[in-house]
Amino acid sequence: MFSSDLACDVRDEYRELLSGKVSDEEVETRIIAEYAEIEEDDVPEFWIAFAMTQFKVGRLSSEVRERAARFMANGSDLVRWEDFGPRTVDRRRAVLERVAEQIAGEQSARRTIRREWRYETDLEAGDVLEYMSESGRVALFRVVAVRAEYGRSPLLQRLDFAGDMNPSLSEIEALPNRSHSAQSRYRYAATSVVKYRKRDLDWCDVGFRRLGRAAVRADDERFVLCWELQWDQLSADLEAVLTGAASVDEFARR
User: Fold this and answer.
1) How far is the C-alpha of 208 from the C-alpha of 140, rounded, in Å?
2) What value does the CA radius of gyration of the chain take, rounded to a whole number of Å?
3) In angstroms, rounded to a whole number, what is the distance separating the alpha carbons of residues 78 and 73?
4) 105, 121, 133, 207 — which has fewest CB within 10 A?
5) What does 175-186 look like in DSSP terms, one character per residue?
6) SS3 assignment for 115-152
7) Which stretch of DSSP H or E encloses residue 154?
8) pTM to 2 decimals?
9) Domain map (residue ranges) of the chain
10) Which of 228, 226, 172, 234 is nearest to 203 (CA)?
11) Tens digit of pLDDT for each residue in 188-227?
12) Residue 208: which H helix or E strand, with range?
C-alpha cells in the first residue's frame, strides 16, 4: 500500500500533524487541501492511502472512507499501474481488495501519535563558532542559516582564516567564506550539522566555542545543503586537518 512516494508522503505528513496537538478534523482538512492540486491520475491513490493511514490510527472519517471505496470499486486506481504489466496490476488489485475489506470493517482503536525527538539547535544565523585543535590551530565557522525541517539544524560555512589567535568580531565579519576560494561548484555549498538522537553530542560537547553573532550577509540565502554530518564527525575531521593528518585540500569545500 505504501510503496510509492505519494502514499508515504500522505502517511508521514498526516502523522506529523497529529503529533502536533492539532485536532483530527483540522489535520484532515489540511491534508486534503495540501493535495487538492495533484495530478488527476494520482487522485485515487491519494484517497486510498489517506483512508488506510487514518484507519491504522483509528481516525477514518466517513468522507475519506467513501471516497477511497469509490475509487477502489471503479478500478480507476489500477490505470496508473498498467504500464508496469499485468502482474503488477494483479498485485495492486489484490492489495486494494484487502484495503477495501479492512476499511469497510471496524477500524483500529484510536491511537495517540507521539512526536518523535528532533534536534533543536540553540544556534542562530550569524553565530560564529571556533574550533581549536590540539595543535593550537583554529578554524572558524559561521552559521549561514538554520534549517527548519524536522527540527532545527545549523548550516555552516567555514571562514577563510588561518591562525592561532581569535580575531575580533569586526574582523570576523570581514573574513570571506572559505568556499569562495574553492571550486566554483562549491561556492555556495554548506554543511548541515545534526544530532540524530538526543544522546548524540552537540557543538559545545566536542570543543566548539561560540564567539558571538556576526551580521547576516547578503548572499547567505544562496547557500545550499551539500553535506550532512554530526558534531563529533566534524570535530574529528577538523582535528585531522588542523594537525596535518589530512590534506587541507580535501576539506577546503567545508
Assistant:
1) 9
2) 25
3) 10
4) 105
5) PPBGGGGS-GGG
6) CCCCCECCCCCCEEEEEECCCCCEEEEEEEEEECCCCE
7) strand 153-158
8) 0.58
9) 5-104, 127-251
10) 234
11) 778 899 998 889 999 999 999 999 999 888 888 888 878 8
12) strand 208-213
